[in-house]
Every structure is written in structure tokens, then in C-alpha cells.
Amino acid sequence: MMKFRSISKKFLLIILLYLMIFHLNVFAKASDKVQELIFDNSHFKTVEGIDLHYRIWMPENDIPVGNVLLVHGLGASTFSWRYVAPELSRHGFLVIAVDLPGFGLSQRRPAFEQSHESRADILWGLIKDLNIPGDWHLAGHSMGGGVVAAMALQRPCETVSLTLTAGLVERDSRFLNKLFSRSRVLRNIAGKVISRLFLTRRRVKSFLVSAYGREPTTEELEGYYKPLRLKDTYLTLVNLFKSHSSDKELPDKAVTMDIPVLFIWGREDNWVPVNKGEELEEKMPNSRMAIIEEAGHCPMETHPEDFNFHFINFLKNLEINSF
Fold first, then answer.
1. What is the per-residue DSSP string for 27-49?
2. What tens digit of pLDDT does each residue of 101-114 get?
3. Quick one: pLDDT at residue 190?
């Protein structure tokens, strides 16, 4: 059995090397033109040695009724919140949407630990550096739900509420961790191979069809595809191969929080089934669930009116009751 495993690992390494060598020309096509993708309200700030991209929407009267931080999911960016952030701003909230390290227009760094704890640390660092007064409503989608939950656990006194959209579900990467943890070279090769195989327009479109429950528009496809094709995105994939004990423990720790929590889920979500959210809602003492019928994994994009109705009413009720 041991001999078979050794042969299997060597065979896998040979295949990965082959794919990397013979598709190297494809990897070289990755874009490094971040400036071409920035938005009118884009900003960059270096936090803990990483250049973070974030966007700010100010309230129309310049006096916020509250602060909201929006955190995207795996493979996404601030683009995910294009229908949510402006509406929050119209209702008087100061809104920040941020690209997590290695995603969107934020810097790719090989040394960054892709755990919820590390992401939470760097986002609190960003908030501190921006010197915006007041506490925060934290909202995250999918993987971003784990990030904002970790943020709330780190600084509960600065967190007004959590909104989790198809988020805070344990990520199990034990197989990948065992496979790649011992070899940095193997991780780098695997990251490039996965970039070659999965970060194509056709693949990204198929992922969006599954997540949306419908065909994406050209704008939606390009909004996801272009940031993923930025140079060195494979470094993010490399770090995602590693599992972290803090991520595994996060759901159990989160259910002990007494912070108001809103779960928003799509009834037709086939990435993270709605029953996962219902199980969490039952365990969390100060939470409620809003289910959007016919929506899939990304209700804030496919059903923005329904999403904003639940989200904004939740935030407004908390702000009114805080006085």
C-alpha cells in the first residue's frame, strides 16, 4: 500500500509538471493591468504589507446612520455588491466593500495565510487605518460570511450586527491540505494548473450559471472573469489548498455570540443548501432567517430588490432601536 501511494504521488507530480510546461504560454497571458479595472470610487491602502482595494459609498447627507462593511465570497470581488452598496448609501449608510487579499484588485501575496482569522485581522486593520468613527454592521457572502463572523468574534464591542448570505459553513480542505502541504513546488504547480483549467471564460461562465441559476450577462461574466485573470492569481489558489483549524472551529464559536444576526439564503441554492442556514439559525440565540424564493447562491445579484428589502429593514430596525 505504501509503495502504491508513493507511485501515485510521483505520477501526479509528473502530470502536473507536464501540464505546467506545455501550457506555460497560457499562464503568461494573465493580465497585470489593475488600473484598467478600477471603479470611480476605488481606493487602495497598504495594510500589513498588502495593497487592499476597497470602494466607499457615502450617504447622500454625509451624516451616516450607520457603517456597513461588505465582504465577497470565493472568487468574487466588490463587483458582487454592485446592487446593494448604492442602495444602502441611499438609505443613509456609509458603505465599504473590500476585495480580500488575493481577490479582485487586491494584491496577491504568496505568504498571506488564507484563513478567516487572517482575513479578519487585515480588515480590522483597514477599518482602523481609515479612521471612520462608529461601530460596524458586518455582511459577508459565502466565504465572506466566515470572514465577518471571525471579525465579530475578534471585536464584538465594535460589531453592531452580522448579515450572512449563504455563509459561515465549515470549509473542508483536508484532502488538498494533505496532498500539497509538504511541497511548496507542488502547490505552485497545482495553482498554475488549476488556473489554466478553471480560470477560463467558459469555466467561469459555468460556475456563474450554477451559482445564479441562470445564464450570466456579458457584464456579469466579465465582472468575475477579468479580476481572476490578473497576474499571480494562482498564488491565492495555492494558499487556499491549506486548511486551518480556526476555520473548522468557527461555526461552533459563532453560535455563542449574542450579536444580532440575519441569514439571507436563496431557496434554490445548490452550492450551500438552505438547510445549512436553518441549522445555524436554530443554534444562534439572536438570529433570524430570510429566504428568497427562486434565488440561488447569489441572491444579492440575481434578486437585489428582495435582498435589499430584507437587509435594509434589518439594519434600520437595529439603528432605530439603538437610540
1. HTT-B--GGGG--TTEEEEEETT
2. 999 999 998 778 88
3. 65
Determine the Cα–Cα distance for residues 319 and 317; give it in Å rounded to an integer: 6
Q: Give the whole-angstrom CA distance, residue 53 versus residue 89.
A: 19
Q: How far apart are the first and last CA of the chain?
A: 67
Single-letter amino acid code for the residue at 254: A
Q: Helix 245-254 and helix 116-130: axis angle, to 10°? A: 70
Residues in the chain where the model's pLDDT stays below 70: 1-32, 170-192, 195-197, 241-246, 320-323
Question: In the chain, where are the structural domains located?
Answer: 35-171+245-321
Question: CATH homologous superfamily of domain 35-171+245-321?
Answer: Alpha/Beta hydrolase fold, catalytic domain (3.40.50.1820)
pLDDT value for 60: 81
User: What confidence tens digit (pLDDT) does each residue in 25-65 have?
Assistant: 444 455 567 888 999 999 999 999 999 999 999 998 878 99
Give the model's pLDDT for residue 33: 78
Please report which residue ranges of the chain form alpha helices under DSSP H. 2-22, 24-27, 85-90, 116-130, 143-154, 174-180, 184-198, 201-212, 218-228, 233-240, 245-254, 274-283, 299-302, 304-321
- Sorted by sequence, the CB contacts under 8 Å of residue 317 that are 6+ apart come out as none
Residue with cell 457572502: 141
Half-sphere exposure of 111 (CA within 13 A, CB side): 3
pTM attached to this predicted model: 0.86
| CA neighbor of 82 nearest in space, from 169, 168, 162, 141 | 141
93: Cβ contacts below 8 Å, ≥ 6 apart: 59, 64, 65, 66, 67, 68, 137, 315
